Here is the input.
Amino acid sequence: MVEIQRQVAHSEVNADFKAKYASIITYMQDCSFVHLLGQDGMMHELDKRGMGMFLTCRQCNLYKIPVFEQDIVVRTWVYSLNRFIGYRNTVVYDKASMEVLAASYAGGAFVDLASGLPAHIPDEAIKDVLIEKKFDGMEYLPRKVAIPDLDGDVKDPFTIYRSHIDSYGHTNNAQYIRMVTDCLDEEVYPKIMRAEYKIPAKSGDKIYPTVYKKQADKTTVVLRNGKGDVCLSCELTM
Here is the structure.
């Protein structure tokens, strides 16, 4: 397990001094990457083979919104890992009370960076990664996010800029969530968010969003590229 402690900063909140939803995802992402970099044997093997680990899905359950200047603790750990994929929990706590504010599970796949195709690494490379107990404070929903079979509300397209790009050269996963929430008519804090990441979007790509409202409390946002390929499908349960 890796733990980071931080205070909710002014640049991370909205006009009501609540942490933006994408900021909460960023806390999780940053803690997860610190943990990933600490896996020396696995990272050495990935570097040697020209490979990386790409996020494929995330479910986030939000219980209480962090606020400006609140001290928080973020913890992450791996609960399942094989030569092809791995799964981790990441949990955000209030530092003073250790109340759970948000909890997540996320899946990642090993990928050949040159081809962008799934790949695998030897068992030897992952033998030292500590596998810990799966977080039992949330219901685990399917990682696949279905696109509703109905007419959606097509939104204005937008462009992926350099500021959206991460160290892998494609759109950062928290940036995708920011794009999703920006497609909606008002700011939202979904109780449950499920995201399925598919085709990576790169700088200069045009993104075409569609919003599907299947039920009163469920909204699905799909981001497609100029070829019509799905980059992200994201279900928000309010």
